[in-house]
Amino acid sequence: xxxxxxxxxxxxxxxxxxxxxxxxxxxxxxxxxxxxxxxxxxxxxxxxxxxxxxxxxxxxxxxxxxxxxxxxxxxxxxxxxxxxxxxxxxxxxxxxxxxxxxxxxxxxxxxxxxxxxxxxxxxxxxxxxxxxxxxxxxxxxxxxxxxxxxxxxxxxxxxxxxxxxxxxxxxxxxxxxxxxxxxxxxxxxxxxxxxxxxxxxxxxxxxxxxxxxxxxxxxxxxxxxxxxxxxxxxxxxxxxxxxxxxxxxxxxxxxxxxxxxxxxxxxxxxxxxxxxxxxxxxxxxxxxxxxxxxxxxxxxxxxxxxxxxxxxxxxxxxxxx
Length: 321
Known about the structure:
Oligomer: single chain
Order of helices and strands: HHHHHHHHHHHHHH
Largest sheet: none
């Protein structure tokens, strides 16, 4: 389990780094356009890396996994990446990064609820308390930012839609992680599907669903035109964000799911710390000042994760001594 926790923190670090080039890309190309190009880039990269590092042919990428693995990882990709990221991107565009970040804290609770019904995950009162401590710390951190830090160039739409989409995005991301966990329960000839291969399945299903929807709605040209023009060099930022986010970040997240076994809510709670990770990165990249309030709220959020991770030991100490 300690190694799974370490990989989960690596996931959060990758996603936090990826936020910065994705923000620049969205300002140049548009948030929805970035969502399309990043998934397509991720499929290309993951296909190449899977062939190189897993030693698989293109045919084996499709034929190797079991039908059940295609089903669960495919649904996980559509729910967590196609729908979840669509709702999340739209919420950020309407509400801005400050308010939009708040809803990401609902993902651990969503993962816990989905895990209870789908894989039978159990968690004690101390663990639930840890989740809420983390959520409280992240909300304090996000709400404590100045309005200027939370604005984007794409604020549009009505408030209710932004809030609804923020909630839907968090629910989809939490459920998507649990569905991926279900996919790892199936083993081909006793062997678990490699995290890289599972990530590839999620990405190719998510990308196919997203582009099919775009084509049906007649929006393909609008989604691809800014990318083909490489408007304001936005494609290079999208490329950097793709490497840290959908490629390495999502691959690490699948590896964390493997190592943490039946505890997807623990992984999702650690993933929800990305606003905390952004603090030092913002200082290094943009020289954004770290206030005492930011430091305290980040410490509380991390403390909540520690309580969640050590929940059994804490419960044993207080209730069995």
